[in-house]
Structure formats: structure tokens, C-alpha cells
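Dig into what follows:
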Amino acid sequence: MQLVPRLNVNSQTCINLISCIYSHFQHRTHIIQTTISISSSTFSSRIFMLPLYTYLGVLFLLIFFLHNSSCSAANDTLAAGRVLAVGEKLVSGNGKFALGFFKPALPAGFSASSSGIIAFRYTDLSHATKHFSEKLGSGGFGSVFKGVLSDSTTIAVKRLDNLHQGEKQFRAEVSSLGLIQHINLVKLIGFCYEGDKRLLVYEHMINGSLDAHLFHNNGTVLDWSTRHQIAIGVARGLSYLHESCRECIIHCDIKPENILLDASFAPKIADFGMAAFVGRDFSRVLTTFRGTKGYLAPEWLSGVAITPKVDVYSFGMVLMEIISGRRNLSEAHTSNNYHFDYFPVQAISKLHEGNVQNLLDPELHGDFNLEEAERVCKVACWCIQENEFDRPTMGEVVRILEGLQEVDKPPMPRLLAAITERSHVISK
């Protein structure tokens, strides 16, 4: 790993290098910089009194010293669990780490501070997870295991299996969660980048994922107030990603499995392995097809450049499932009369009939706020409009769900209208 850039040798370069190393000696255990841009006019006037060959000799020694000490510090940091400042560039274009600066080492396995993330050793994570014995879940990119650090902090460790796909997900997650913090985004505590091993370390969410509480008989039923707060929390998290980060971050895979719940059932968006980034000077990005069936916006299928509205569509589909407590696409969806069991069709139809209460999860036993339920149903139906320009932004969604902005009844999307019409024909 080369942390010292190539330099054009001249007098000013020598001055900058000497100034930098002066600072380095003062703060040796605190910071190592990859870019050298320190200068001092007073120091410069004295340095120029020396012959140029003196500069060159000093330059050779300084480069040798910086190269060895920087590489040693980098290796120690990646191996010994040091905190990396949030905001620095963690992953370069070729997948190798380009660490901007480090902070002093912490004890192995120590929990991250609010200002940084930790580079863990693989052996420490193996020990924390009892050799990856307690699996919390698994997906297309790898498995997640429960672990406990030496300070008793409970963690979730995602071990990425497929090296090629895992590398891409690793870079996407560190590039997004490593640089941002929000109460409704899962916290990235650290990572492991050792040989072919790629692991991500998150805060542990004790109540698991939303799908477990909506679709599985695990003995818990989310009441209406909890569901409403989950909907608002996820909307706030997405609004932050779309509108408040330096670059717009499109999650690209919003679904109940990627919404985690803490001890108070507050939601946190997780799994940024498919995330796409859009510069603020652009409105859309052309990217490869990604996401999960049942939550994909129509524009994914057309191959056009996407906008944050693909997340809005997915969020609308999740809202439908929060309302009903069932999958939008059920097993019956594969039969000849599957259109009768496609919940979004029912949702919009019942909304226009003024019969929203029949859409709600029977497990609620009628215990819900009808005004909030109607508002959530309206938002969900607007979010899944076929034309992306008809969908609200996530900022608007937050205001509507909080009751700060009114919303009209949405039209029936053409695709759903066609499904409804065909369903009536089949039923005759």
C-alpha cells in the first residue's frame, strides 16, 4: 500500500515536505496525511538559504522515512482495529484502501466512537462471533452472525461470501454507511479487509427485520401506532439519503427484509450493497438492473436511467404490506386467477370506495386510527404510480405521513387498471 504520492522535485516541494514532517513528529501518533500541502513563509525564507543539493538530500531521506512509517501505520491500523475518521475516502476505485488519516489504536474489538469506524482483525471478529456460530440470517451476498465485543457491545457481522459480488457490496456499503449517520439508518461500526476476507460490522438490532413481524408467526403483532411510526421512520431515512447527503444515495432494494428494528421498534434501513450514487449536478443515473421482485419500479424494466423515485415506488409497496400484514405478491399469484390476490389492486379500489378499514391487517382487530390509515393508504398508492413524475418525493412523503401536508386520492395506475379489468373478465 503506497500512501506517499509521487512528487516533482523542486525547492517548494522540499519546503512542503520538511514542514509536513515537522508536523508529523509533533503528532506522530495522531495523524498521518497522504497529501502534503503545508507551507510557511517564515520557514521558507530560511530554507532558501541552503543549496539545492541539500534539499535533494533531505528530500530523499524524508521520502524514505515517510514511506516506511506510513505503510507501517497503515498495516497496523488495518490489523489492530483502529478508528478511521468518518468523512475520509475509505475505498479507492480499484477496491484497495486509500486511507486518508488514522487515529491512535484502540484495544482490539473496542466499540466505535461517534466520529469513526473501526478496521477489525479477522481473528477478533472470529472470536467475537464464536467462530461464526450464531447465524442471524443470510442473503445473496453472504450471512450475518451475532457477536459480542470485548466491551460487551453486541454486534452483527456480515460475512460476504462471493469474492467478486462481495467486493462490490463491500465497497458500496463502506462508501455509503461509512460516511453518513442518521437515526433511521443502521450504524456501520467497522469492517475487516484482510486478504480475500470481506466483513462488515453493524450495530445489532434486537428485534430483527420488519418481515419477521409482518409475515411470520413469531408471537408478536405490531400495533397500529408502531406500524405508523415505522412508516414515518423509514420515510425519514430515505428522505435523508435522497435529499440531505453530499451525493444523492439511491438504496435500490427497499423491502421489509432490509428494514431492521431496534429495542423500541424504531426502524433503521440496512443493506446498502446495491446502492447507487447520483451527483447533485445530475438528476438520474444509468446503472445495472437490481432489486427484488415485487418492489421494482416499472422504469427498471425499461432500462432507462433511474432516479430516487425507484426507492419511492419500493417504499409504497412496503407501505402496502405494513397496512395489510401480508405480502403484496402471494403464492396464489402464480395461478390463472392470480390477479384477484394482488393487494395493490385491492388497496386502490377500496380507497376509492371509502372502505380502507377492510384493507388493514385482521390481527389489529379494528384497533387503529382511521385518519392515519387513510393517509398511509393514499401515500402508498401515490408512491406506486406508474409514471415516476406522479410519485411524491420522500420529503413530501414524510410531511404527508406526519399530517403536515394534505394529499388527494390518487388515480388508478394504468397497469393496475388493466389487471383489474382482466380480473373482472376472468371472474365472469
